[in-house]
Amino acid sequence: MKLHTxxxxxxxxxxxxxxxxxxxxxxxxxxxxxADQPDPKNVPPGTEKYVLYANMTIGETQLMGSDVPPDRxxxxxxxxxxxxxxxxxxxxxxxxxLSEGGEVFMSMAETFFAFRFGMLRDRFGTSWMILxxxxxxxxx
Length: 140
Hints:
Signal recognition particle alu RNA binding heterodimer, srp9/1; alpha/beta; single chain; 38% strand; 8 strands
């Protein structure tokens, strides 16, 4: 069994996935548009270029997404993508990139569990936790 993350966007799925591809080292594997459907009468006017289905890999994770009508789109509220990185420098770099045009919920800082940890919603409406974790003691 596998659990995957599927994100909805309000018309900017391609922009978001290309941004993640460029800045997070991801790779877009597939991007299908509304206009690619077999029956064009199912495509609402003005949505032809919207993404019907996109799939990308970031590290060992598969991320999927699509566009919904902008009037139905709402930014994430109670869900975060948690991105663990191997250095404080990488955490800072990614946090800075993702926070541009977005909303910072918790500034990047050291915590009891992480060398660097921060929380934000990016300009695409996706909420993130960026983490460079400290070694955890073994339970015992």
